[in-house]
Amino acid sequence: MNQELILILTISNLLIPLVSFLILIFFGKRLPRGGDVIGTSLLFAMLASALTVMLSKLIIFPDEVIQVSFKWLTFGNVPFIGQLDLHLGMVVDNLSAIMVVVVAIVSALVHLFSIGYMKDDIRYSRYFAYLGFFTFSMMIIVITNNFFTMYVGWELVGISSYLLIGHWFEKKSASDAAIKAFIVNRIGDLGMFAGVMIIFFTFRTFSFDAIFSAIASGQIPMGSETWLTAAGILIFCGAIGKSAQFPLHVWLPDAMEGPTPVSALIHAATMVAAGVYLVARVFVMFTADTLMFISYIGAITAFVAATIAITQNDIKKVLAYSTISQLGYMIMGLGVGAYTAGFFHLLTHAMFKAGLFLGSGSVIYGMHHALHHQHDHHTDPQDIRNMGGLKKKMPVTFWTFLIYTLAISGVPLTSGFLSKDSILAGTLAYGNLTGHFLIPVIGFLVAGLTAFYMFRVVIITFFGEHKDKHRFELIHESPAVMTIPLIVFAVLSFFAFYSFNPFDATAGWIYQLLPRPESVVPMAMQAASIEIFGEAFHHAHYPAMFLSLAVAGLGILLAFATYYWKKINADAIANRFSGVHKFLLNKWYFDELYGFVFVAGTHAVTRIMRWFDNNIIDGLVNNTGSWTVAFTLGYKEQWKERTLSSSVYMTVAILTSVLVGIFSSSALWPEASGFFNYIGAIAGGVIAGLLTLFGFWVGAGGFDKYVVDGMVNGVAYLSGFFGLVFRKFQTGRVQTYLIFAMFGFMILYFVFRTF
Amino acid sequence: MEHILTAIVFTPLLGVLALFFINRENANLIKTLGMAFSLLAFVISVFLFLKFDGTNPNMQFVFKILWIESLNISYNVGVDGISLLLVMLTTFLTPLALLSSWNSINKSIRNYVMMMLLLEVGMLGVFVSLDLFLFYVFWEAMLIPMYFIIGIWGGENRIYAAIKFFIYTMFGSLLMLVAIIWLGYYASTLNGGKFTTDVIELFNIAPTIPLAIQTWMFFAFGLSFAIKVPMFPFHTWLPDAHVEAPTAGSVILAGVLLKMGTYGLLRFAIPFFPQATFEYLPYVAGLAVIGIIYGALVAMVQPDIKKLVAYSSVSHLGFVVLGLFALTEEGVQGGIIQMVNHGLSTGALFIIVGMLYDRRHTRLISEYGGISKVMPVFATMFMIVSLSSIGLPGLNGFIGEFLILIGAFKSDYLGTPAFSILAATGVILAAVYILWMFKRVMYGKITNPENEHLKDVSKREIAVLVPIIIFIVWIGVYPSTFLNKSAASTKQLIEKIEHYKSGNQAATTVGK
Question: ipTM of this model?
Answer without folding.
Answer: 0.85
